[in-house]
Amino acid sequence: MNTSASDSEEEVLVYAEFKDTVNIEKYKNIHVLGIDRKNPVIQLDDTFFTGSFENPLGTYLFFEEDQTPHCDDPLFDKLPEKNLKYLYKTTKLLSMEHAYVTSKEGSADIENKLQQSSESETIEPVTFENLEQALETFKKDKQEYDDSVLKPVINS
């Protein structure tokens, strides 16, 4: 049985109210995650909003522009510039707040350990009396490094 993507898609109208001032027209990509869950997430480009459903005072109505307006009496009825027709109503409101990234529990411990290790591994400045002494020191250190890195590992 071959099912297409349109079989699994469902259109849902939701009235979402943002706590912050949001100009939705400036965003290119809008993703709604978990609309059937208790706390859905809306992603507008790289900005995330979390929300919860509430019962508003009243009913929210959805309209769409009517491309074929109906006029009963063309002589006396004037059609407005935009004709709207009723589409749907809802008694639910999705109240959205801006979501901020916070660190997980335990990440403060990791940051403390990293800070402590960087503090304990402080590198002391090296001073040389002349150029030859510096070159000899670097050659010696390089040779020790190369020897330790290039030593073969023998498994017994």
What do these coordinates show?
By secondary structure, the chain is of the alpha+beta class. The protein contains three helices and seven strands. A five-stranded mixed beta sheet has the order 1-7-4-3-2, with no helix packed on it. Strands 5-6 form a two-stranded antiparallel sheet. Strand 2 and strand 3 (41-44) form a beta hairpin. The radius of gyration is 33 Å and the shape is elongated. The model has no long low-confidence stretch (mean pLDDT 77).
Instruction: Give the rounded overall mean pLDDT.
Output: 77
Radius of gyration using CA atoms only:
33 Å
In whole angstroms, how far apart are the ends? 58 Å
Shape: elongated
Number of helices, counting only DSSP H or I runs of 4 residues or more? 3
Question: Tally of extended strands?
Answer: 7
Given the helix and strand composition, which structural class is it? alpha+beta
Q: Strand fraction band?
A: 15-25%
Identify low-pLDDT runs.
none
Q: How is the topology of this model organized?
A:
Layout: H1 5-8, E1 16-18, E2 30-33, E3 41-44, E4 47-54, E5 60-65, E6 84-90, E7 93-98, H2 107-120, H3 131-150
Parallel strand pairs: 1-7
Antiparallel strand pairs: 2-3, 3-4, 4-7, 5-6
List keywords for this structure.
156 residues; alpha+beta; five-stranded mixed sheet; two-stranded antiparallel ribbon; 3 helices; 24% strand
In short:
It is built from three helices and seven strands, in the order αβββββββαα. The chain has 156 residues and is of the alpha+beta class.
